[in-house]
Every structure is written in structure tokens, then in C-alpha cells.
Amino acid sequence: MKFLKNVIKTMKDTTWLNAKETRRDTTTVIISSLLFIGFFAVVDWVIQSALSLLV
After folding, report:
1. What are the structural domain ranges in the chain?
2. pTM, two decimal places
3. Which of 13, 18, 32, 40, by CA, is between 20 and 30 Å from 51?
4. Transmembrane segments in this chain: where (predicted)?
């Protein structure tokens, strides 16, 4: 019983993001992911090109 009371209390004390904050954070994650994808694609291409010159 104590556990459930603590869960309810914690849920009431939790601060949830509003729609604007959620949209901002989601956009940040998507843009960061695309930048990382681009970076690793370029690094992969450079490594493949360097290895093909060696072989």
C-alpha cells in the first residue's frame, strides 16, 4: 500500500512538458539525428574511398 501511495504522490509532483516544449524537444532530436546520420555517412564514404585506393 505504501508503494502505491508513493507512486501517486510522485505522479502528482511530476512536471509534464507542454505541447510547445514537446514539439521543440522532438525537433531537436530529429535534427540532431539527421546531422549524426550525415556525419557518419560522410565518414563511411571517406573510409570506403581510402580503402578502395589501397586495394
Report:
1. 18-55
2. 0.67
3. 32
4. 29-47
